[in-house]
TrEMBL record:
Keywords: ANK repeat, Repeat. The keyword Repeat applies. ANK repeats lie at residues 183-215. This is Ankyrin repeat-containing protein. The keyword Repeat applies. It comes from Filimonas lacunae. InterPro entries: Ankyrin-SOCS_Box (IPR050663), Ankyrin_rpt (IPR002110), Ankyrin_rpt-contain_sf (IPR036770). GO terms for biological process: positive regulation of transcription by RNA polymerase II. SUPFAM superfamilies: Ankyrin repeat. Pfam families: Ank_2 (PF12796).
Length: 396
């Protein structure tokens, strides 16, 4: 091999004694070959704990010690540190010494700091702790005003134990668990939105507020229920605090009406979450604007699958003959629903009418337009079976 490659080859073979001897004899540690293999060279040194050779790399200009000079962290020594160093005491001793040589360690490189980068590269938690102890800023926030807890939560495929260890380190060093980013999102909201339920306990135990509101007026409960339709997340949040069902967001939407707006399926999980919220105090009669017209939980329920209506009827929360401002009962609302030329939708409407009649719905009540439920159903030929059912009920 050429003398230009000799030291590099010795290091990559793990023959550090030979590399030291060659360096002492004046062999070079530079050139295109060394530059092309720099990452492998550094990894070999770090994994082999030949830490004295790191100083040689610094001397030969292969490791830049001023972060301000970096154009990327991805091809820097910190990539190697995150990948190759473990939490052994001799390794940490080296790292402490090495970090003393680093200038501007809290400068941003493409909106990322050394500490954030090493967490995103899944470094050993002991390495992260050492970085913090050596002055890496835990209070850093990016251009979206997100602190480092957000960075951990946002990282895909991060080992759960490492992620929790990072968050614990950040919290123990004073990072705000209820910090709001530029749009008001808190780390707890983000964990819910990202489906990172494994972080919820840790955040909640450290004071995360599930009823904190973002700039849209939405809480972590709202995102768990309306966006994610995730009962396990909802149940976890309410272990620590009760949901605020009586406050609407900036659009005037309540949690329950938002859920019913978004819940298209009538799966057992969907129905279970609906029933749980009703048990926890949500009102089926709350109304939120929908295309600028108030629409209540009852209005939404009238459009849902028979299975959902049947489940809610069993709870007793529905006043079966209660009339709204237009004089419509829930039976009116079901009969007026537009089945849109869909025979299956007409069959499901028939099933819902049967459920309501069995629950004691009065088919003779008229609304403000002097219309009975049967009159509303009779406007659509696909609802002929429903009209027959109402006629039979009237004659009984």
């Amino acid at each position: 091999m050429t003398s230009e490659k000799a030291v590099a080859e010795a290091i990559m073979r793990g023959n550090f004694s030979e590399a030291r001897e060659q360096l002492q004899n004046g062999e070079p540690l530079s050139g295109q070959y060394v530059e092309n293999n720099k990452s492998q060279i550094i990894n070999s040194i770090l994994r082999g704990k030949a830490f004295d050779l790191i100083d040689k790399l610094i001397e030969h200009g292969l490791i830049e010690t001023d972060v301000y000079e970096y154009d990327t962290l991805d091809r820097s020594v910190f990539k190697n540190i995150a990948m190759s160093l473990k939490g052994e005491e001799d390794t940490l001793t080296f790292l402490r010494s090495f970090l003393q040589k680093i200038q501007n360690k809290n400068d941003e490189v493409r909106d990322t700091t050394v500490l954030q980068f090493c967490m995103e590269e899944a470094a050993d938690p002991a390495i992260i702790k050492c970085l913090i102890e050596q002055g890496c800023d835990v209070q850093y926030k990016n251009n979206a005003d997100m602190n480092l807890i957000y960075s951990v939560i946002n990282k895909g495929m991060l080992d759960e134990a490492k992620g929790k260890a990072y968050i614990e380190l950040l919290l123990s060093n004073g990072v705000d668990v209820n910090h709001r980013n530029i749009v008001g999102t808190t780390p707890l909201m983000l964990a819910v939105q990202r489906g990172k339920n494994n972080y919820l306990d840790l955040l909640l135990q450290n004071g995360a507020d599930a009823n904190e509101l973002d700039n849209k007026g939405n809480s972590a409960f709202y995102y768990a229920v309306v966006e994610q339709q995730n009962k396990s997340a909802y149940d976890k949040l309410k272990e620590y605090t009760s949901p605020d069902f009586d406050s609407a967001n900036k659009e005037g939407e309540y949690i329950l009406t938002g859920y019913l707006r978004m819940a298209y399926a009538a799966s057992p999980d969907t129905i279970a979450l609906l029933l749980q919220m009703l048990e926890d105090g949500a009102s089926i009669y709350q109304a939120s604007p929908y295309y600028h017209v108030p629409k209540s939980g009852i209005d939404w329920l009238a459009e849902k699958a028979p299975e959902a209506l049947k489940a809610v009827l069993t709870t007793g929360v529905i006043d079966i003959n209660r009339q709204d401002d237009q004089g419509n009962t829930i039976l009116h609302k079901v009969c007026a629903f537009n089945v849109n030329y869909d025979q299956d939708a007409a069959r499901k409407l028939y099933q819902k009418v049967k459920l309501l009649l069995e629950a004691g719905a009065d088919a003779t009540i008229t609304n403000n337009q002097e219309e009975t439920p049967m009159m509303l159903a009779a406007k659509d030929n696909l609802k002929v079976k429903t009209v027959d059912l109402l006629m039979q009920h009237k004659n009984n």
